Amino acid sequence: MRVAxxxxxxxxxxxxxxxxxxxxxxxxxxxxDPSLAILEGISRIDPSLKIETLIHGSTVGTNAFLxxxxxxxxxxxxxxxxxxxxxxxxxxPSLYDFFVEKPAPIxxxxxxxxxxxxINAKGEILKPLKDSEIQRCLNWLKEKDIxxxxxxxxxxxxxxxxxxxxxxxxxSLNLPISISSEILPEFREYERASTTAINxxxxxxxxxxxxxxxxxxxxIKIYIQQSNGGWLTAEEASRFACHTILSGPAGGVAGAYIWxxxxxxxxxxxxxxxxxxxxxxxxxxKIPFTKEYMIDGYPLSIPVIDIHTVGAGGGSIAYIDTxxxxxxxxxxxxxxxxxxxxGKGNKPTVTDANLILGRILPEAFLGGRFSLQKxxxxxxxxxxxxxLNLGLEETALGIIQVANINMCRALRKVSLERGYDPxxxxxxxxxxxxxxxxxxxxxxxxxKKVIIPKLAGSFSAFGLLVxxxxxxxxxxxxxxxxxxxxxxxxxxxxxxxAQSYIKNIGFDPQDFDTExxxxxxxxxxxxxxxxxxxxxxxxxxxxxxxKQFGYxxxxxxxxxxxxxxxxxxxxxxxxxxxxxGEEKYHLKQTKVFTEKGFIEVPVIDWNSLKIGDSFKxxxxxxxxxxxxxxxxxFIVKVKENYTLVLEIL
Length: 649
What we know:
With 649 residues, the protein is α/β, with parallel strands linked by helices. 30% of the residues lie in helices and 28% in strands.
């Protein structure tokens, strides 16, 4: 049996199949040691079911990077380029901000080493790498208290032999070694250096965590979800730790894509609101990818699902800034101490505000296993209310409105700001807190349909369960687009490399499909478009260029800059159903505070609904791990697998 577990900032979600029926559970995360929550989640599964495989979405790498708790690394590069990570690029996110702060470094300048060697932009050796220079670098490393090494030599994507020689020599140090020709064999030195350094920074952290997990689950095969929506072995995740940065959120998008296809919905905006953050992604018939992802000021140039994240979750803390304005997030109360109503903390959060408004029922939280303490929420929010000179409920409503503004901004970022009309898309909502805000956000943006799966509270884990293994390979090749024979030769070489790699880590290449993409541009341009490879790839490039930029250029030849091969497992679990579940919430009516004051609202147990049912809002719909607040303007329809579809009247 396969089990999928997604570790979030507040909760750890578990999803598995039992007799083709999807089962889910949720436990509090344990930030000090995420494996403890995983063990607790597994212990809640029927012991008669033999677990053979665990697919794990982890935030260990992400948190280590954001909190700057990665390994102490050395950065080895071509002499004269030691400052490349610190200089970065000329573009600035805040051009007129006099007080802007650069992101905290992941490597200190005294741990950067310039080695005497040089390759030119054609891949030719200008200065060979001598054995004496390798030994000089090795001696320098031995004098340092280094836990991991990053190597990024100039133009090594064309001539990797110097990096390979260094790696062989450094293996004697018994440390993780990341070389750019393996991590990112592509041009653009800064992005390649940054990605390689991030990998070196996170590999020891990820390795230690996964080794502990494997010891505790020695009889279970462990796979780790990657940022590209697929998973690979735990050993490979330790080696290529940078690929786990968007591990959990990527699973959510992959799951939403599959679920929406079953409902014949091709245009969705995924809205994943958990305890710590909200992740949104626009899917227009296919999952979007980007290789220009930034994490806390550093470029990570690997293929990742194009997800936009904001610090707005159920645990986001509300406060008043120095100007007297009410703000929400990005700081979160997380799992420990959590929102005030959890019984440990005393800071007001979005969850506390929803509880005060009556949208969350204390006795129905976490399937009734954990009762919320409303009086603690009242005390926490009352402190804000006094400063704002507002009533308790008005302040709570203000917190929700501010949080919604933050999330609306994120939804506009992936739609309107990219030329998409959100009204043409359905809002696909999941995450434990998403259902409380989805209909309000849809109303604000004019989105006419909201889709909420019954598994919403643990949906990212569902995405992990149904995702296949995926591995991306790339190589900068620099050829004229019309050189088709040369391009086919490169494709054969990289495809063979990909299949060999998959075989070496224990998979059968025949169980994988191969997808080929080309990064193309007009000669002289500073950016590329990624185009699926077909025999008419030049025409496809020009159509995409015209679509995105409104013009074609007949005066400049077209180039193929980088070749990409994605090898994707054919396995995708689709023989699943959602069971109706046991009806357990018998409260029929409650009061909810809105802009019009308190109103009487029906309370509906999700498990009491039948496929084909429909009813009008307002309403509160309860499920073990999520609550849905339906605005008055919506009608609710119950579709296949008890999926809720909210449509504006």
